[in-house]
Backbone:
């Protein structure tokens, strides 16, 4: 059998061709990196992979104020007056044990037209609870809020912001949407009101959910924060309205 000759083909190469080929390789490489690498700087919009809501639709200039309440009752009257002054309706999430202590305040909040949400009966870590315990955390608070105000909410903000697919699924089975946030004021650390304002104003965006608590610097920051957002053209609505 005759041996088969292997032929090699050579392309003439000069410096311009080599530089051109290297440029193509570099561009393709960067394109592949950009395509395959997740952008961890982007906030999840509307629903994240775990099913929780971190942000509303971004096609309209609307935002929401989410106020988690487990303490700080002394600052709530000032915050309510500010919200009334600027004709803003917020969404308040309550811990059940707080509702037991201050039923008149949650009633006033509801009567002044704000949305009520469920923050769990106690401020426990949801990830440490069984499905049955997590169900009780939500249902016990639901029954308490309904008994005090007649209000039936379908919004659940997990204590400590702890969330995963299991927590979302348990809440969903009970008829709840799990609410997280787009902008965290981190006001529980009691920074100055100027810091709180800057954190919100600098990150304001369509569909944004702003997490805050009833603290003294938050109450002080609220008028300027709201005024600035409204001047930028944002309409501040409840979370249910934001997610419509």
Residues:
């Amino acid at each position: 059998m005759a041996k088969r000759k292997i032929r090699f083909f050579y392309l003439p190469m000069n410096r311009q061709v080599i530089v051109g080929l290297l440029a193509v390789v570099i561009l393709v490489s960067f394109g592949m990196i950009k395509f395959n690498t997740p952008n961890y700087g982007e906030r999840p919009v509307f629903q994240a992979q775990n099913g929780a809501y971190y942000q509303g639709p971004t096609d309209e200039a609307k935002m929401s104020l989410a106020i988690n309440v487990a303490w700080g009752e002394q600052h709530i009257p000032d915050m309510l007056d500010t919200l009334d002054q600027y004709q803003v309706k917020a969404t308040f999430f309550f811990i059940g044990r707080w509702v037991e202590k201050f039923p008149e305040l949650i009633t006033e909040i509801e009567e002044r037209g704000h949305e009520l949400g469920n923050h769990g009966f106690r401020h426990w870590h949801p990830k440490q609870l069984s499905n049955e315990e997590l169900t009780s955390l939500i249902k016990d608070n639901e029954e308490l809020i309904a008994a005090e105000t007649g209000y039936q909410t379908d919004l659940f903000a997990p204590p400590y912001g702890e969330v995963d697919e299991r927590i979302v699924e348990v809440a969903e089975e009970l008829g709840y949407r799990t609410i997280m946030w787009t902008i965290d004021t981190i006001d529980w650390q009691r920074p100055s009101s100027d810091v709180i304002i800057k954190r919100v104003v600098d990150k304001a965006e369509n569909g944004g959910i702003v997490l805050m608590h009833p603290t003294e610097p938050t109450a002080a920051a609220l008028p300027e924060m709201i005024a600035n957002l409204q001047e930028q053209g944002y309409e501040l609505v409840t979370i249910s309205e934001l997610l419509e």
